[in-house]
Amino acid sequence: MSNTNNNIHGQWSTRLAFILAVSGSAVGLGNIWKFPYITGMNGGGAFVLVYLACILMIGLPILMSEVLLGRMGQKNPIETMRTLGIQYAGSGLWSLVGILGVLTGVLILSYYSVVAGWAMNYVYLGLSGTLDNVDAANATLIFTGVVSSPTNLIFWHSLFMISTAVVVGKGVVHGIERSIKILMPLLFLLLLVLLGFSIVNGDAVSAFYFLFKFNFDLLTAEAILIALGHAFFTLSLGMGAVMAYGAYLPRGHSISRLAISIVFVDTIVALIAGMVIFSVVFANDLSIGQGPGLVFQTLPIAFSSLPLTSLASVLFFVLLVAAAWTSSISLIEPAVAWLVEAFSFSRQKATYFIAFIIWMLGLLSVFSFNSLSEFIFWKGTWFDNFDFLTANLLLPFGGLLISIFAGWKLSFNISSSEINTTKLYWFRLWRFLSRYIAPVGIMIIFLDGLGVI
Length: 453
Ligand code: PHE
Prior knowledge:
The chain is mostly helical. 79% of the residues lie in helices and 0% in strands. The chain has 19 helices and no strands. It has helices spanning 3-8, 15-26, 29-41, 45-73, 77-89, 95-127, 136-148, 150-170, 173-201, 204-212, 221-234, 241-246, 255-283, 294-304, 309-343, 347-367, 382-409, 412-419, 424-449. α4 crosses α11 (221-234) and α14 runs antiparallel to α15. It binds phenylalanine (PHE). The site of phenylalanine has 15 residues, from α2, α3, α11 and α15.
């Protein structure tokens, strides 16, 4: 492996390190903040079913393809796609997949950082005692207080961007590896504690029915598009993050098994978060469709009836920040790697440059909750539009191209030896999903969701 690569990402020391790094990227605000609130806004059960189907039939094969392409190309996503494109498809234009991915990562991080800033703010609120004995009315007031002040939001957004940039600037794979090994199990444990709590104190039965009772009347074409988009968002697919990480996976490991463990962890975390949050929602007669504030307005209520209230809420929001942070690193990495390689920027300079652009863009999301909240176009505020454009259009579009490339441009022999499944039929299944189900599925959901058909 060349020096350039080591400078950019470092190398995963073991198979477990790779699983943890990709799970760290996958598990983030998407699972705990976004999944519950979009499920609430899109009617529950049927939406969850479509999301799970998209994860299995579209997300899983594309996750495998991204790892596969990254490991074959051994470079940042733009270079990887250019080299593989020339080699297997006769055109360097495939690098556009990487370029699109870099842009998408920048756009996503701009609003992701604002939400991660809310979580940081809640750590502070927990420490200062504001989250003690919160009831439903209080919880709403606290959240409104947080988002209505631009200076407050800018402060936390800046702090989150700086902490991401400092770490990425240093090139800290080993730091990430080490912290993820502790943080991920801790987050999981705390979610299990919360799940136990919600079964005892919340309305877990209603939550379960809401998540798993399929009421197809509530399912619109746009909801299906959002479910597809979220499958990409939650697995970090379609923008090259996994491709960049795949470049450091030693050959010889079975990609299918790696991918299945990552999908499993990611999905379980989202479903548990959904159970916890909706148990609290139903037990306290809160509204399911309250949007992006959902997790911030429900969990403090749950914590209030736990022993060690402040400790539980501080711990939870610290872990949420940590989960967001390991995802944000993978969102900015393709852009940084590209600046370093294509323009010979130093790693630090590249990071601060990109982080500054992202920070500026993020201001539009900051103002979406206060001064610009009345400024509505297309899907809503700037924040809503960034979210819809990236998660529901750009990521699935990137995924479509990746799937077509891996399924149609790589020959049977090449991809089967690279994917290295234990049984040939698993490989055949991957290839069938990549060639037909994923591309056709994405195209139909696109056209339908955008009202074209
Ligand atoms: N998967 C992350 C989450 O669920 C978000 C993300 C999207 C990260 C795309 C990287 C790339 O929070």
